[in-house]
Amino acid sequence: MKSLFRLFVLMLALSACSQPVQQQRQMKGVILHVDDLKTMDWPALAHENGINTIGTHVNPGQVLEFIQSESGKVFLEDCRKYGIHVEHQIHAMSELLPRELFSQDPEMFRMNKDGERTPDCNCCVHSDKALDIIAAKAAEFASLLPSDNHRYYFWLDDGKETCSCPKCREYSVSDQALIIENRMLEAIREVDPEAKLAHLAYFNSMPAPVKVKPAEGIFLEFAPFDRTWDSPLTDKDATAVLNDSGITHADILRHLEDNLKVFQAEDALVLEYWLDVSLFSRWKKPAVQLPWNREICRSDVQTYAGYGIRNVTSFAVYMDSTYFRKYPDTGCLKEYADILSEIK
Ligand SMILES: [Zn+2]
Known about the structure:
This protein is α/β, with parallel strands linked by helices. Helix content is 42%, strand content 14%. The model is unreliable at 7-23 (pLDDT under 50).
């Protein structure tokens, strides 16, 4: 009896050790376009500099094509060798609900402000048929593009409008997104029972959802696009640099606080732009040199940590072989990972 009890205790201890270690690992990530991954040995670069997660980007089709190619297989093998988690951060909605289905059933697609159904972007979240198709497709992508950390990202169409039909118009962009995400997660868990799915707070989905509650397993991904990287978030009066929205850092932090009343901080992920050469090049090549500022990054990371957020990733798009030939210094990557390691 005694030995049975011991065995039971041992099994409990073993299951406690073996399971959550990987999931609880603090994310120190970068997100790269698959074209960057094709020309640069990112698994080695990440490994040398202390980055432990690589997110692929942009659309499901592009990412699938890369992952299933020979160079994609080598990328996955190398990441595995170095213990780097691979995840896929993708703009997905137009592929989750194929646009050509519009002629069959316009009701699945969003209504614009003029009261017309249009397949230009996103969907009608009060169409069960649309949600069924979206959820099934998300599960299919999740099985073809599994995530090492069980985090999945199927974002709405990039900053685009959502549905204004009589049923949807009562719901904010964030609430509409959450309706879709809750439904997708259910289907993705059929493929990966440990799956978690991102709710992206970004641009027009920055305000916290108010009418819809996240299902267990939906985590906040906070991407403060409407800021400036010339000064830290603690500079409350600083305003957005990429548009004239007039949004200040104080507004961004208020949105973060509101979101953290809905989502758990320990699971939340910040998606930043400190390393995003594509952003500083205004998404046009030739790429400019990254205006890396260690102190601003450190201050921001501490601000996020003050809210209990430890998991951080940054776009590093355009950091391909051409970029590093011109600007060979990779010191920013090491400093970035070191700053994240300072979070306790
Ligand atoms: Zn609608």
